[in-house]
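Need the bound structure for zinc ion, inputs here:
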Amino acid sequence: MERFDLIVEGGQVLLPGDGLTEAAVAVREGRIAALLPPGTTADATERLDATGRVVLPGAIDAHIHLGASITVPSEAEEVGTETRSAVVGGVTTVLGYLMSAEPYEELFEPAIKLFEQASYTDFGVHFVIGTPHQLEMLPRYVNELGVSSFKFFMNFRGTEGAYLGLPGNDDGFLWDLLRAAAPLGAMVNPHPENIEVVWRTREAAQANPPADPLQAWGASRPPVVEAEAISRAAMFAAESGTSLFSVHTSSRLALEAIADRRNRQSGIYVETCPHYLVLDEESGVGTYGKVNPPLRTAEDREALWTALERGEIDVVGSDHVPRHRSAKEKDIWSASAGFPGMETLLPVMLSEGHLRRGIPLERIVEVVSTNPAKIFGMYPRKGRIAPGADADLAIVDLDAPRTLSNDTVVSAAAYTPYSGLEVGVSVTDTVVGGRVVVRGGEVVAGPAGGYVHRAASGATAVEATRTHSAGRSA
Ligand SMILES: [Zn+2]
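Answer from helper R.:
Posting the output first, comments after.
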């Protein structure tokens, strides 16, 4: 009899194209070795009973920030605690944003060593590009370091990026970055906000602030500054044929601007975050809900759900920020922006999207696993349950009502903006690279994540997956 390292049995397995299927997932050497029909006898070193639950490809959180400074993690602990929060929520791979004005060819190795030492999930990184030297090194970043997606803060004019140690920039630099990325098969992820207009709207909002702090914050950075900026970036990208990833899309107006550009050019990918789908400026979460771009209105939330259902949103990432809750307990203008989200990403999307709104399980899995794998150059190794793929699995009980609470948060941030939210879903077990890391809700193994080298992102990466599926269809 064939012997496997691990068998996950008894559950309904989400298979690409086939939906939920009764099967056992057999694992050998970190990869899925076979899908066994029910009743097959097979020998394994370890077994995991998934009876009554669904087995999904592990979530891929393509948008996270780590470290006390949220620029580059400097302590193993910073990586360990946060990626532990990820696996508890069924996330098996993370892509972290490294943000620095220093040369990444010097930062990369020590940062990756920290991850190798402490990460419970597999991991890759994006670089924020802000200096002429970094721009010059782009070919090396892609070809040698396997980093093929680059963030650009359109709002960092003058000293706006100084709090992260990043220099000021302009549209000319974005233009150069787009032109440098295209021939490398790399993608640019702009943070789209027109800061020159924000300087005006912020002044007006501060002079005459709405009573609710989140409404004041929203008024200071209205949807038009996001919509205009993403439209501008897309027009520039069209000229160089560069793929663009619209991070944390928050508003109906931005969706409309993107839809308009998508009618004219290919290679635009769209991300939103769970908080724009679940919370709005009237959710009453106070300064804990301060984030950039701001939480919007109920109408914007509905527009985002509609877009997600229609396939107009490709990825849902958490924009995880692990700063401690004390950084939020200030007035709205001085509270820090962002909040933790890795451990809630999958449960909240399954509960709010699938259970509450009836969006098919397949669609939710697409936006939290399959699409990020494809768009960021990790498919077919990740993002699907099929022989040959990494054995990254999230085993989920879809009938496990509970209330999210600050008391159970694993992240060092020690709070969640979803505290009090009723969810119907619980991640019971998580498998990363064939190792059972979470069993029965408890972390049972140490960190052993590995680096994911990503040769291409955007249209180049997605194109490569099409060739792959064509070759495999049978
Ligand atoms: Zn972010």
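Comments: The chain has a mean pLDDT of 96. Residues 63, 65, 97, 319 surround zinc ion (CB under 6 Å).
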